[in-house]
Design goal:
The complex is a heterodimer of chains A (287) and B (258). Chain A has helices at 19-24, 45-56, 76-89, 118-135, 157-168, 176-185, 190-195, 231-244, 260-286, and strands at 10-13, 32-35, 59-62, 93-97, 100-103, 106-112, 140-142, 149-150, 171-175, 202-208, 211-213, 220-222, 249-252. Chain A is α/β, with parallel strands linked by helices. Chain A has a single domain, classed as Divalent-metal-dependent TIM barrel enzymes (TIM Barrel). An 8-stranded parallel barrel of chain A has the order 1-2-3-4-7-9-10-13, surrounded by 5 helices. A two-stranded antiparallel ribbon of chain A has the order 5-6. A two-stranded antiparallel sheet of chain A has the order 11-12. Chain B has 11 helices and 6 strands. The chains are: A alpha/beta (287), B mainly alpha (258).
């Protein structure tokens, strides 16, 4: 399966609101990522903008609607649309989520959780296989942000993801904000989660902002993508890239959008951390 | 479908139901609050999609009224596809029959205009014919020509001054009382990347509707004149060739244009 490579640099989620700024001059972003479903119209400005991004930067296509984590059959028509988009834009990376978003013909427009059992593992493996065979390319599968757990789960999430990757050959997308949010919501340690994460399978990292809600005495974190990445998440990121070396790292900002320079400053912060990790890796290799 | 997924989906859609069985959160005041995050994420994102697509309708009735209507629409017409850019195509019809909005009879047509605007925004790209194409058609053949209109084009005829109402509620015209209340015809068109909403005459609306049905130009002009005695064919033909039509073929010569 052909599989391009994102550069080992910091990138940004692309928003049409930033197109004028981004197209006015070369931006120091390593790559851009878009939500695939926003480009499933026939034509117009979205495709003209994506064409510009494609021609000038490495591109990551990030799907939110393939319903990988569902027990129901994959939506073949949706997979075909995703394949068309991959064919048209030849992204360096294509990713989806360990989550479901449709059931009984209704689309929920959210990334919903699944229990981690031998039965759901078989479903997810079959779906990732079918998607990768249909797309003729390797997918990265992202760890979710969770607010609840299923009591019937018998497999830890990190083992579940590793098993999916082992069975299908897919890579993983490690969302460190999701790790933080899920751990906080379940009174668990994000560091322990990362210690058990199969980091050698990670093809991309996601970083985003979240907010701590008043509910549950402040113990509830909501993955809102509407604010800067917090220091604690960046510290976890540092520890990951100290082990792996630099990886493609995306700053996601989907709600309450700031001006482009504000998002770019976030990207630059992440880039500096990648550079430090690269330097210390080189030192370690030389020593 | 597995029980866990069916239960979860059912509880997401029905706020009266308790959280699905078998879910929990440690250190939490309880699963209801945590499950509420998923319910809330869904509702906020769907309301946001409708608010983004229908800003004029929201302005007309106010945010609270709009959200109340949108919630009922979401319950009756949840998205059926992961392509959210087209969610809300059925919202104008819903508003038409939404009892609390009966006092705002132009609301549904305002929403129809906005729904068409989003469709036009995402419609396929196509290059119009050019004025030179008109010169190339022999005079005696002109009335026999059939056209393919630009894929973004929609025509909306309303008993209300809908283009004016839309302009006033999207900031392109100052809000003011409309003294001369009469119906308007709207042409929704996206020649390149910007959607244009133009007020057209009854004759132009009939002209374009006839052409859209692949009737030859001569027939379209007759339809326009029947709708509006003052219809000026020259103007509309010039507009057709310069901006509205993307292909033409002579009637009977090889069927309808591609």
């Amino acid at each position: 399966m052909p599989s391009g490579q994102l550069p080992l640099r910091a990138g940004a989620g692309f928003k049409p609101e930033h197109f004028a700024a981004i197209s006015a001059a070369r931006q120091p972003a390593g790559f851009f990522e878009v939500h695939a479903e926003n480009y499933m119209g026939a034509g117009g400005a979205p495709h003209s903008q994506l064409k510009f991004i494609r021609e000038n930067y490495p591109l990551s296509l990030h799907g939110v609607g393939l319903n990988i984590g569902s027990c129901e059959p994959l939506d073949r028509a949706h997979l075909a649309r995703l394949k068309d988009l991959c064919g048209r834009y030849q992204p360096e990376s294509c990713s989806e989520h360990l989550a479901w978003s449709s059931s009984g013909g209704i689309y929920f427009n959210d990334l919903l959780p699944l229990p981690y059992t031998e039965a759901t593992l078989r479903c997810v493996v079959a779906h990732v296989d079918e998607a990768q065979n249909g797309l003729r390319r390797r997918l990265l599968i992202e760890n979710p942000a969770a607010y609840l757990r299923f009591e019937e789960s018998t497999i830890p999430e990190t083992e579940f993801l590793e098993a999916v990757a082992r069975a299908t050959g897919c890579g993983l997308l490690l969302d460190i904000n999701n790790v933080f949010v899920s751990a906080r919501n379940h009174a668990a340690s994000p560091q322990a989660y990362l210690d058990s994460f199969p980091l050698h399978l990670v093809g991309e990292i996601h970083l985003a902002g979240h907010f701590a809600a008043e509910a549950d005495g402040g113990a509830l974190c909501v993955d809102a993508h509407g604010s800067p990445v917090i220091e604690a998440v960046l510290a976890l990121f540092d520890r990951v890239i100290a082990r792996t070396g630099p990886l493609p790292a995306l700053v996601e900002w989907d709600n309450d959008l700031p001006q482009w320079p504000v998002l770019l400053a976030e990207v630059n912060k992440v880039q500096e951390r990648l550079c430090r990790a690269a330097a210390s890796h080189k030192d370690a290799a030389a020593a | 479908m597995q029980d866990w997924q069916a239960n979860f989906a059912r509880a997401l859609l029905d706020r009266e139901l308790p959280p699905p069985p078998g879910v929990s959160a440690p250190n939490s005041t309880g699963a209801p609050e945590r499950f509420g995050v998923y319910r809330n994420n869904r509702m906020v994102s769907l309301l946001g999609a409708l608010e983004a697509r229908f800003p004029a309708a929201r302005k007309i009735v106010g945010t609270e009224f709009f959200k109340a209507a949108a919630r009922q629409f979401i319950a009756a017409h949840p998205p059926r596809s992961p392509i959210m850019i087209f969610y809300g195509d059925a919202f104008p019809e819903f508003l038409e029959s939404f009892k609390p909005a009966q006092g705002v009879p132009y609301l549904a047509d305002a929403a129809r205009l906005e729904a068409a605007r989003a469709r036009a925004y995402h419609a396929a790209d196509a290059k119009p014919l050019c004025r030179e194409a008109l010169a190339a058609v022999p005079g005696e053949a002109l009335a026999d020509m059939c056209f393919t209109l630009h894929p973004s084009i929609e025509i909306l005829s309303s008993p209300h001054p809908i283009v004016t109402i839309f302009a006033m509620n999207t900031g392109t015209m100052d809000l003011a009382p409309i003294v001369d209340w009469h119906g308007e015809h709207a042409l929704i068109l996206r020649p390149e990347y910007e959607v244009e909403i133009r007020r057209i005459s009854a004759g132009q609306a009939a002209f374009l509707r006839s052409l859209a049905k692949k009737n030859p130009l001569g027939e379209a002009i007759s339809a326009a004149l029947a709708a509006e005695a003052n219809f000026d064919p020259a103007n509309s033909i010039a507009l057709l060739f310069s901006r509205l039509a993307i292909a033409m073929v002579r009637n009977g010569a090889g069927g309808v244009p591609a």
